[in-house]
Amino acid sequence: MHSTDIAHARTPEPATGDRRRWFALAIVMTAAFMDLVDVTIVNIAVPSIQRDEGATFSQIQWITAGYALAFAAGLVTGGRLGDIHGRKRVFLVGIGGFTVASALCGLAVNPEMLVASRVLQGAMAALMVPQVLSIVHATFPAHERGKVFGLFGAIVGLGAVSGPLLGALLTEGNLFGLEWRPIFLINLPVGVAALVLGSRFITESKAPRALKLDLPGVALVTLALLMLLYPLTRGRELGWPVWGYVSMAGALVVFAALVAYERAKGARDGSPLIELSLFRVKSFAAGIAVQTVFGVGLGVFFLVWTLYMQIGLGWSALRAGLTGVPFSVAVSVAAGMSVQQLVPRFGRKVLQAGALVMAAGVLIYLVEAERYGLGITSWQMALPLVVMGAGMGLIVAPLTDAVLSEVPREHAGSASGLINTVQQMGHALGLGLVSVVFFGVIDERLAPAEVGPAFVDGFTHALGWVAAVLGAIFLLMFALPKRPAQHVEGAADAEEAPAAGEKEPELVP
């Protein structure tokens, strides 16, 4: 989940009698749902896009990675823009832009236009998503927020389950002969309604002393990621040219320049993009590493899994979507149990157990894929998918709290924004690595009869990498606090702590 962030702010208590706040909640939840579904809905339609548009496999990777990269690069800036210019205003700009970008995706005439439109869509999501929790905090009194965050969790679960199924139904349905395009065009009526109703029902709020923007920091992060991801994605296609290795090595230099710049900016005006002092907190530094590596593993798995089922096994989008339902249900059930019952009793061990359980599911899947080959059925996939989903649920729900539990209260906003950002960056990196761990073991020119076996081999090879990633996550988790749910004195309270540098938000009539 790449949910929200960024400006967690205490608010003057809003009037509980104002029914408009529930309309506002429905609108921002709809926007969050659109974003969550959009990530999962595209994965299931990727093979159809590849077939209908004649897209290369590197373009397919960029259709997903471009969104994740733009979203990651813009998240913290999106939160800051809301603090400075008003969360309602930035939210409406974001949802309007997201709707326009969705239309451009649906009307794309070639793969290049689709990739560019997806990058725009990710950038607009980065404006829209950080405002969701900020608007909730500015709109609801403290005693109602527990109920609201419960609703938010249900929406997140629903988005995870319904995205692949909705994508499969829209792709298979071929509405009006539009093939895969309705997966994007469905956002248009929803976005327009949210724009109209949001302008009427959402109350404006902003931070009177918001931090300044750090656009050079955003530029350096984006440049470093592009220098790393572009040669990774295109390298196999181009025969791994020397400039690709130079670019990837250069990315490390740019990251070093980013650290130096952020340190200087923090000393100069106290508003860096990345609060480097956070990395002195061992649990936070380890948690950021876990989030990044976990994002890499998920980025590799979900794209490869879709290609394996639809191109390798020749399944329809609908069958692939239905096959994933046990996974999504297991994630939701395990996530609920981990937060409410397991983590309060067993602490960090729950997250570590999640990594091992998920790795076990991946290894079961690997054995089954090798054993049954092209004859594997959806029912045979159900066991490894349920085990994987249970493991993932044990990790995703309590991880953010574990990472934030020892962060100083005044940096809670910066820290939560950074968590979301690195998760998306990891996801984009994982999508880039698909060209190495999956396509790298598949010959470029395959006879039709060779495609299935080659994709099965590629899938099992990629699963080995995902299992190794989960093993690394298990080891990194030893640096997390043993009892992440018990916040230390002065540590971040994820619900109440204001973003770094903020005072109470100012409600604007």
Description:
This protein has 509 residues and is mainly alpha-helical. The chain has a two-stranded antiparallel sheet with strand order 1-2. It has helices spanning 20-53, 57-85, 87-106, 111-128, 131-139, 142-173, 182-185, 187-201, 215-238, 242-269, 282-312, 317-323, 325-346, 348-372, 378-404, 412-437, 448-476; strands at 204-206, 506-508. It starts with 19 loop residues before the first helix and ends with a strand.
Evaluate the radius of gyration: 22 Å
- The total count of strands amounts to 2
- Give the number of helices: 17
Query: Major beta sheet, specifics?
Result: 2 strands, antiparallel
Distance between the amino and carboxyl termini: 33 Å
Going across the biggest sheet, name each strand in turn.
Answer: 1-2
Helix coverage percent of residues? over 70%
Succession of helices and strands: HHHHHHHHEHHHHHHHHHE
Mean pLDDT: 83
Low-confidence stretches: 1-15, 485-509
Hey, roughly how much beta strand do the residues contain?
Answer: under 5%
**Structural class determined from secondary elements:** mainly alpha
The outline comes out as globular
Defining traits:
509 residues; mainly alpha; globular; disordered N terminus; disordered C terminus
Secondary-structure blueprint:
Blueprint: H1 20-53, H2 57-85, H3 87-106, H4 111-128, H5 131-139, H6 142-173, H7 182-185, H8 187-201, E1 204-206, H9 215-238, H10 242-269, H11 282-312, H12 317-323, H13 325-346, H14 348-372, H15 378-404, H16 412-437, H17 448-476, E2 506-508
Antiparallel strand pairs: 1-2
